[in-house]
Amino acid sequence: MAAVPGGRxxxxxxxxxxxxxAGRGLEPFLMREVRSRLAATQVEYISGKVFFTTCSxxxxxxxxxxxxxxxxxxxxxxxxxVSSVSKGKIFNEMQRLTNDDPESWLNAISxxxxxxxxxxxxxxxxxxxxxxxxxxxxxxxxxxxxxxxxQMQEIQENKECQMEKQIEEETLEQGxxxxxxxxxxxxxxxxxxxxxxTQKQNDLTFRVSCRCSGAIAKTFTAQEVGRVIGIALMxxxxxxxxxxxxxxxxxxHLSDIYCVVGIPVFRVPLARRAYIKTAGLRSTIAWxxxxxAEIKDVYYMGADVSDSQxxxxxxxxxxxxxxxxxxxxxxxxxxxxxxxxxxxxxISDIPFGKKFKLGKDIKHIIQExxxxxxxxxxxxxxxxxxxxxxxxxxxxSSVPLNSKGSRTDKPGSTECLNPEEKAAISEPASSSFAASxxxxxxxxxxxxxxxxxxCYRVSxxxxxxxxxxxxxxxxxxx
Length: 478
Prior knowledge:
By secondary structure, the chain is α/β, with parallel strands linked by helices. The protein has helices at about 25-40, 60, 85-100, 100-130, 130-175, 185-200, 215-220, 220-235, 285-295, 305-320, 360-370, 385-390, 420-425, 430-445, and strands at about 15-20, 40-45, 50-55, 70-75, 205-210, 240, 250-255, 260-265, 300-305, 325-330, 345-350, 375-385, 450-460, 465-470.
C-alpha cells in the first residue's frame, strides 16, 4: 500500500500526508493533538507512529508537543518477507520502493520544497517587519554562509568519491549471495556504475537513514539497506549521496509489521524545547500529563525540596519568559504549606528512587496531595511499576462507599481511547494497547477519596511507567 502525499505541486492546499514518531504509549495523546491542533483527518497509528493528513503549514506543525519527530510520508506498505526468499531477491524488492512508483517520490520532494520555501518566506517577512537593520545583517550572513558552503563542497567532493567507491566495492562483495537462478545482486552491481554516471544530472544531495527491527534486522544491517536504497535513488533520480551535510534525508523503517519511508521535515526533533535549559522529565511525557489535567487559566505553583531542582526550574522559567507567572516553593511533598482543599489540579512526577529517593512511602505522599486537593479536583501522577504495586496494596477500607452504601469493587473509568480513535487504528494488533491500559486501570482501586479515571502505560526509554489520572470524589472522613 503506497501513500501519495497530494498533487505534484499542490503544497498543502489539498492536504498533505505526514507521520510523527512518538514514545511508546503516547500515540493516543498525539492522535488527539493532531486532530485538535491541526484539524487533521485520516488519523491512524501503528506502534510508535501516528499518520495523518493536514493542510496546516510548518508553523503549526512545529507546535506539536507530544511528537518526537515529524516526517512527510512517501510510502507505507506491507513488510518484506525475509523467511523464504534469498537475500538478493529481497534487495530487488527494496529497490522497487523507488523504481515502481517514482511519481510518489517526486510528489513528496515537490511538496517538501514548497513547505520549506513557504516557511522561509514567512520567516523572512517577519524579520523584515521586525527590524530592517537586522535583516541586512542576516543577508550578509547568508552570503558568507554560501561562500563557505562552496568551499566546503570542494573538500567534500573528494570524500564523496571515496564513499561512492566504497559503495561499489561493498555492493560487489554482496555477489556471494547470488545464485544461478537469481541475478538480482548482479544487476545491483551494474547499477552502481550507472548511478555514479547519472548523479551529476541533479544538484540535490541526500543520505538514507535506516532502522530495521524484528526478523529483517536479523537478516540485514541498517547499513546494507541504506546502501541498496541509496544506489536505487542515485540511479532513478540522479541525486548525489552526501553522508555529512545533505539537502535531503530519507528515513526508512523496516519491521515485521510495516515498511515506512518518509522525509524528516525538521532537522531538530519536535521534542527538543528551546526553553528547556535544564533537562528533567521527557518533554513529551510532561506535556501528556499536563494535557490530561485539562488546566485552565489559573495561578501556577511548583514545589520541590531540592535546591538544585528548583534552580533548574528557575532557569527554564526564565528561558520560557514565565518567571513572573509561576511561583516556585521549597517544600516537601509530604508537608505542603497549603490549606486543605485549596488546589484544583496537581501534576507530579513522583521520584522513582534511582536519582532521587523517596523519604516517605508513596502512600504518605498521595495522602498529602489528597488533603490539599479540592473535591472534584484532578491529580495526574507518573508512577513506576513499584509505585503501582504499592498503591494496589492499599487496604480495602480505602475503597469509598457508593450511593447505596456498599463497597465499590471497580472505580468509574474513562476509556483510554474514545470510539472515534479506536476506529482510526489501522493495525489490528494495536487494540491490545488500549486493552492493556484499561486492564491496568481496572486493577487499581481508589485511594481514599481519589478515584482513578484514566491510565496510560508509557515508555521512558529503558524503563516503563504509568500515567494515572485521579479525581477527588469527596472530602476525607465523609
